[in-house]
Structure to design on (138 residues):
């Protein structure tokens, strides 16, 4: 089963990440977003002005559900969060590969060493040892 494509703002993604870590206490007075406490939001480093709207959106998307005085992430919300994390990790790994390609001419052994490290075929210690070798660059 594939996940639906969900586009979140940075603040919505940050709130979802916080909810993956722990539910957010809210007052039970109908609108879950209206019951978000400023202290709890501030303690998590969230923006109190956008958090209620972000929370409403996450509930609407089915990523968060209000229950028992808390806003809790759903299984779908957890999956969407980790899929976004995986996408970010892939992007960083792609940057490493492009960096290796860019410096391959000046440091011929650096690119293969980075590739081996990224693929998990060598340890960080082995990669550092290879990079420290005098003939590595130049």
């Amino acid at each position: 089963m594939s996940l639906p494509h969900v586009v979140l703002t940075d603040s919505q993604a940050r709130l979802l990440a916080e909810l993956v870590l722990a539910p957010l206490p809210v007052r039970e007075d109908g609108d879950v977003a209206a019951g978000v406490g400023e202290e709890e939001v501030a303690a998590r480093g969230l923006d109190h002005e956008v958090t209620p709207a972000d929370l409403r959106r996450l509930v609407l998307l089915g990523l968060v559900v209000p229950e028992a005085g808390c806003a809790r992430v759903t299984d779908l919300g957890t999956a969407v969060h980790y899929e976004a994390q995986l996408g970010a990790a892939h992007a960083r790994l792609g940057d490493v590969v492009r960096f290796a390609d860019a410096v391959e001419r000046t440091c011929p052994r650096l690119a293969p060493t980075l590739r081996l490290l990224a693929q998990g075929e060598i340890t960080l210690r082995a990669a550092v040892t290879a990079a420290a070798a005098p003939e590595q660059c130049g």
Summary: The mean pLDDT is 87. Residues 75-103 form the longest helix (29 residues). The two ends are 50 Å apart (CA to CA). Residues 63 and 75 are 8 Å apart (CA to CA).
